[in-house]
Amino acid sequence: MKLHFWSVGKAHEPYVKEGIELFTARIANYYPVEWQIIATLKNAAKLSKAELKKKEGEVIIQKLQKDDFLLLLDERGKLLSSEGLATFIETRANESTKNIILLIGGAFGVSEDVMRRANYKWSLSPLVFPHQLVRLILAEQVYRACSIIRNEKYHHQ
């Protein structure tokens, strides 16, 4: 199984880049992993929120393969504990899921098409975080889940 972190927006800011790279390297000890930053559309400022979400959604849908498992980060998604995320990842691995796409949508969320395509909607927190911090939190939590699966000491129970 391969983990794909997708995020709509600009490249990692320096203040989070080092942490994202650290946790991504650690995740790679468990699963193949990669980041893909989906650039904000060039004419984004001229589009309405609805138009922007629709066009970003078209880009996302085009990149997805038929069998990709799309985990959408969404403020209205289900809350999971770290142990719950570990169970979620382990279940996908046991089901022989080939690719899990962990998607952080654009500034205004994702289109209805992407919402419908999502296999699972997950909320990191009821709090709202900047996208850059969400990337770091996501990478750390996936690493934590991997360490829980292997019963390693990173996660103190």
Which features characterize this protein?
157 residues, alpha/beta, Alpha/beta knot, 5-stranded parallel sheet, 5 helices, 5 strands, globular
Q: What do you see in this structure?
A:
- It is a single chain.
- The protein contains 5 helices and 5 strands, in the order E-H-E-H-E-H-E-H-E-H.
- The protein is α/β, with parallel strands linked by helices and 157 residues long.
- The chain has a single domain, classed as 3-Layer(aba) Sandwich (Alpha/beta knot), CATH 3.40.1280.
- Strands 2-1-4-3-5 form a 5-stranded parallel β-sheet.
- Strand 3, helix 3 and strand 4 form a beta-alpha-beta unit.
- Helix 1 packs parallel to helix 5 and helix 3 crosses helix 5.
- The radius of gyration is 15 Å and the shape is globular.
Itemize the secondary structure elements and their pairings:
Layout: E1 2-8, H1 14-27, E2 33-38, H2 49-63, E3 69-79, H3 82-94, E4 99-104, H4 112-117, E5 120-123, H5 131-149
Parallel strand pairs: 1-2, 1-4, 3-4, 3-5
Give a quick rundown of the structure:
The protein is an alpha/beta fold and 157 residues long. It has helices spanning 14-27, 49-63, 82-94, 112-117, 131-149, and strands at residues 2-8, 33-38, 69-79, 99-104, 120-123.
Structural class designation: alpha/beta
Query: What shape does the CA trace take?
Result: globular
Please tell me how large the radius of gyration is. Answer: 15 Å
Order of helices and strands: EHEHEHEHEH
| Residue fraction in strands | 15-25%
* Helix content range: 40-55%
Termini separation (Å)? 26 Å
What is the CATH top level name? Alpha Beta
What do the pLDDT scores average to? 95
